[in-house]
Amino acid sequence: MIQDWCFSLLLQAAEAPAPPGVPADSPAPSLFTGPGGMLVPMILVCVIIYMVILRPDSKKRKALELELKSLKKGDTVVTTGGLIGKVWRAEGPEVELLIDRDEQLKVRFRRSAIFEILRGEAATQTSSKEAKESA
């Protein structure tokens, strides 16, 4: 239906009479010619880039910010450096992670350094790997 409408619109534009001052035998003006001829394709490219790249990325970033605000003791997280640990303390802009239970190794990070919060199955897999390595 929309295709038919677009096709009929293009046909009307092609069959339109020439504007005054333009010879009748000259080619009909096109949507992509003239001073604003490249404007339509550029706008389309910008819309596609926004829909495919920018919008999903901003949704991911907002979801991570919400998760970081709700961070609590015992959550398993991955830092941007690749360290995996459990949250020992989460107060203010800093988070203290327990990296090694046996050695009581704790490291402080900024909340912004947390890349991912492992929930559910991913967190239990990490915990079981840690238990096997310490045994």
- Spatial order of the strands forming the largest sheet: 4-3-2-1-5
Helix content: 40-55%
Oligomer: single chain
Q: Structural class, from helix and strand content?
A: alpha+beta
What does this 3D model show about the protein?
The chain is α+β, with helices and mostly antiparallel strands. It has 2 domains: 2-67, no CATH class; 71-134, Roll (SH3 type barrels), CATH 2.30.30. The protein is 44% helix and 22% strand. The protein contains 3 helices and 5 strands. The chain has helices spanning 2-15, 39-69, 121-134, and strands spanning 76-79, 84-91, 94-100, 105-110, 114-118. A 5-stranded antiparallel beta sheet has the order 4-3-2-1-5. The longest helix has 31 residues, at 39-69. The protein is rod-shaped, with a radius of gyration of 29 Å. 5% of the residues are buried. The model has no long low-confidence stretch (mean pLDDT 78).
